[in-house]
Amino acid sequence: MKNIWIIANWKSNKNIAEALEWISLVGPKLPRKDNLPAGRQGLKVVVCPTFSVIEEVKKAIQVGNFPLMVGSQDLSPFDEGAYTGEEAAAILNDLVELSILGHSERRQNFGESDEMVERKTAQAIAANIIPLVCVQGQDIPIPSECNLVAYEPIFAIGTGNPDTPENAESVAKKIKEKVGQEIEILYGGSVNSENCKKFLEQEDISGFLIGKASLDGEEFVKIIDCANSLI
Ligand code: PEP
């Protein structure tokens, strides 16, 4: 049975009050693992807020005991030390279990290179944070220690114009062949509650990285319900 990952990338959205409102709406609606029969526990839901909101989100999840992991949208390529403004993985790991790395918005707006993504991946792994490496096509290098990849074609990010499930499946298959190791491939790009089922039915797609549709708690829950009905 494959895992299904549903990962919310809030980007630069939601202040603390808005984030807590989302958690109080989504948290109680998440399928609880202890209510699921054995073998149906492969649904992994993650929320990735801005750095300044992570701690409050984490506390709210703990208080509600919600089956929700917390992730960051980036981390530092450096160790702890004299790197002003950076979030070192060794500090962040008190708060997050996963980090989105190499998102196309970081590559485009902040000049993030493949080499930088590789360094960030190594930092994440050393700090026990799961690196979720975003690739915009099958030719983007994938760091060797990385087991979780999001295929996110640029034309589909935030445009309302998703890739086809068939093409996403074909890219996912090619990435798996190229990497030749146990790796899970997610799809990202204009996923919503209307189009998610067809992607999840593809053999090599193990869930989603979701931007816009994750901001609306009700819409996000619909996507989770769809994933939960398929595992
Ligand atoms: C993303 O930014 O990772 C993303 C998939 O965005 P959207 O869902 O808005 O296309």
Automatic annotation (TrEMBL):
The enzyme's E.C. designation: 5.3.1.1
Catalytic activity, reaction form: D-glyceraldehyde 3-phosphate = dihydroxyacetone phosphate
Gene3D superfamilies xrefs: Aldolase class I
Pathway where it operates: Carbohydrate biosynthesis; gluconeogenesis; Carbohydrate degradation; glycolysis; D-glyceraldehyde 3-phosphate from glycerone phosphate: step 1/1
Keyword Isomerase appears in the UniProt entry: yes
An example Gene Ontology molecular-function term: triose-phosphate isomerase activity
Record has Isomerase as a keyword: yes
Subcellular location: Cytoplasm
GO cellular component: cytosol
Assigned keywords, A-Z: Cytoplasm, Gluconeogenesis, Glycolysis, Isomerase
GO biological process, one term: gluconeogenesis
Pfam families for the chain: TIM (PF00121)
Assembly and oligomerization: Homodimer.
Family per record: Belongs to the triosephosphate isomerase family.
Protein name (record): Triosephosphate isomerase
Organism whose genome encodes this protein: Candidatus Daviesbacteria bacterium GW2011_GWB1_36_5
